[in-house]
Amino acid sequence: MKQGYLDEQFCQVEDLQDEASPNFAEEVATLFFKDSARLISNVEQALEKYPKDFNRWDAYMQQLEGSCSSIGASRMKSECMSFRDYCGQGNVEGCMRSFHKVKREHGALRQKLEAYFQLLRQAGPAGAATRPGM
Amino acid sequence: MVLSDATAFPYGLRVLVVDDDPTWLKILEKMLRKCSYEVTTCGLASIALQILRERRNKFDIVISDVNMPDMDGFKLLELIGLEMDLPVIMMSIDGETSRVMKGVQHGACDYLLKPVRMKELRNIWQHVYRKKMHEVKEIEGNDSCDDLQIFRNGVEGFNERGLFMRADSDTMRKRKDMDKDHADQDSSDGATVKKARVVWSVDLHQKFVNAVNQIGFDKVGPKKILDLMNVPGLTRENVASHLQKYRLYLSRLQKQNEERIMGAARQDFSHKGPSDNLNLRSSFQEQPSNRSNGFQHSSQKIQAQTNIPDPHLDETKTSVTLKVPDKNGTSVSDAIDPQNITSASPLSGVFSFERMPVNQDRKLSETMILECQSWSGSVPPKQFMQYPKHNHERCDLLGDYSCLPKLDLEHPIAPGHLYAPPPVISMSCSVEGDVRDFSDVKPDLLDCMKSLSPALTCTVESVSAQLSDSVVTSTNSDQKFSSVEGLSSIKDCDFDQERNQATLLTSEEASIICGTDLTCLHDDLSGYQLQGVSFGNIGLNSIDLFQCNDAMALPGLQNNWYDDVEFSSETMEFPLLDGGLFA
Asked: One of this protein's GO BP terms (chain A) (predicted)?
């Protein structure tokens, strides 16, 4: 978990966890993956349906970037940013490459986080407090 | 669940969060709850608007994402500003200056970058608080006359006004319920001065727009709108405030269609007249300034004007109309007007002023700023610039004040020389070394003034106008002032007087607002003037007085200008000064 997948925003989210919502971070992560999958497919459709419509691409990717920022998915977010940079340059190739990287990062993060929450559940409440590395 | 009904002010703040990103919505909700705020979330801008309209007065602040699929966050922001008058915080992943600027232009009270931090959210209550404070200030600025009473009553008056004046009739009825609902909220605000918020429902706003359309945009004024709307409980300042917002809103729309900012500003100015001093100010700021110092003053003064929307103009109108007949009533000034045109025509500066008296004669009932408007409208751009310049000049005078020493050399006798110096100095400055000539002229002027004096019942403002103008005039044509003799020069002055009334209104209003010892000031000044003493002194003094009164009554507003309190105490020494100078 330490390879920069997540940034301090994730800690913020974890800090929000309390007795009222003991699984808050996991709930947020679940919500994030559900929604980001939708946003990714939005981008994918836009790439197919509206070739070279960089403004539209950028708008969709901006949504995804915003979503990434919520949970602190830093690597995914930086890929989103480079996608948007390519949009600004009108670089279709770059956009495509970035988009695939975004998808890859998304999948990787999902795996890591699932494992992470699995670990937390096994460790129990005590484990949550120590927060096994990231 | 965090308790939403907490005890102290920021707690229980009712926040509406609008974001199409469900993850962010969840996080923000949690964060805000942790801040002990009362949170409502919403994923669509249109629904947010619906919620806000249905549940009026149930929210204190709105946090909205910029990019939303159904409605641009800026659009939402504008609608909220127009209808609900709630503080809105925008948030976005993009921190581009242009985007942030757009948010601010549309009325966002803050612009947060995602990821939004808890500590930022913890602080948002400040926007609610600030808004309340500003609303109180608005009252201050809005009613010169009405507020006199408030000033007399002091803070007590403010509280009364703020707490018991509800505008919307619906709100009036619901007030009791609301008090029950939010008793803790209200009581927690007790420490601050709070003004009841007027809720501009769609219906109410429509009534407002109808009224505006009926009256016609050029002539529109809060009072008229209020009468037309005929909504019980709605106060003039409510309307005035909303009118200002509405104008801003329209001018933004307009600006989007305008190619050039300057063009837009001028158009706004001429089309909307009355309370668009804001635009005026913006055009001022585009003027090159000779002295940054003086310039600052001028814009500051204008700013004061902006705080005083049309309603006051209605009130001022009376004083103006009174003044004008006075002047026109005298045979001397009647004769002066036509002559003035010829004598003044070579000067572009003076030339542009000529229209002022004409306007006044034609339509006495017009409000001050309207006159300014037509003035600027009728005068080509170059002369339009003259207007700012004139203000500017006056401020230069104030600026020059700082070089007192020079003054003393001129008239070391004056007991009240604290006062006298500034004018003389400024004159010497603007006349560019023709000081001697100028003082030569003075006796003539004095004589003429004396002959005029019985008829002239000018008040402080017009006198001060005289001063600043005469200086301006002299600057425009250095030779002219010094070479003029007797009557003609007086004509110029008169002439300027008229023009200046408009511009000096601010000071008048300000002094009215302050309402301190004004009566005796007037007496002193008019007495002074009747003796036909130098214009300079009076004008400067009254300007100073304005500031000093201002500073006294509204501490902290402008008191950084001078040590004004001292000035006001010196007022009584005028007569002495006269004697010294012109004996």
From this structure: cytokinin-activated signaling pathway
